[in-house]
Design goal:
Blueprint (H helix, E strand, L loop, with lengths): L1 H16 L1 E4 L2 E9 L7 E10 L5 E7 L3 E12 L2 E7 L2 E3 L4 E4 L4 E8 L8 E8 L5 E8 L7 H10 L6
Parallel strand pairs: 2-11
Antiparallel strand pairs: 1-2, 2-3, 3-8, 3-9, 4-7, 4-10, 5-6, 5-9, 10-11
The chain binds copper (II) ion.
Copper (II) ion (CU) binds next to strand 9.
């Protein structure tokens, strides 16, 4: 019994570390790309879920690793990818708001040190209604399309060969 319970408990602990709930909002899968030496900007991606019955919004982000964190969205303008600042990100009731490459992201400006693969750092998210959430961001490799774990799953689906 002991031998069966131990891995199960570890699995639960790992799962809990990657999802945080505050009020009706849950944040999970927070990750960032590693940054090359000398870069002073980075981006954080994560998924927000609203389990409540009313609208909420992500309104602000703070992190100790950068001077400033802003909400940005990528969009094409005359064939050029540009980033626009967002005041907030809507999280509709019963829905996910996914911050991911090529879309909405948390822009880190004035990085205090490069983000290294395998490291973790904290971000604090503030919302229009839910109390603030502080979560850990996992740093994936430079140019990653997703967190390291998702990356592995992706490779599996592609039949074992990467990109
Ligand atoms: Cu940006």
């Amino acid at each position: 019994m002991r031998f069966w319970l131990l891995p199960f408990a570890l699995l639960l602990a790992a799962t809990a570390a990657h999802a945080q709930t505050s009020g009706d909002i849950t944040v999970q899968s927070a990750w960032a790309r590693a940054t090359p030496p000398g870069a002073d900007t980075g981006a954080v991606y994560l998924t927000l879920t609203n389990k409540g019955a009313s609208d909420d919004r992500l309104t602000g982000v703070e992190t100790p690793v950068a001077d400033m964190a802003m909400l940005h969205v990528d969009r094409m303008e005359k064939g050029v990818m540009k980033m626009r600042e967002l005041k907030s990100v809507d999280i509709a009731p019963g829905k996910n708001a996914e911050l991911k490459p090529g879309g909405i992201h948390i822009m880190l400006m004035g990085l205090k040190h490069p983000l290294k693969r395998g490291e973790h750092f904290s971000v604090t998210l503030t919302f229009a209604h839910a109390p603030p959430i502080t979560t850990q961001v996992e740093v994936a490799k430079i140019g990653a399309a997703g967190p390291d774990m998702m990356q592995m799953r992706h490779v599996d689906e592609m039949g074992g060969n990467g990109h």
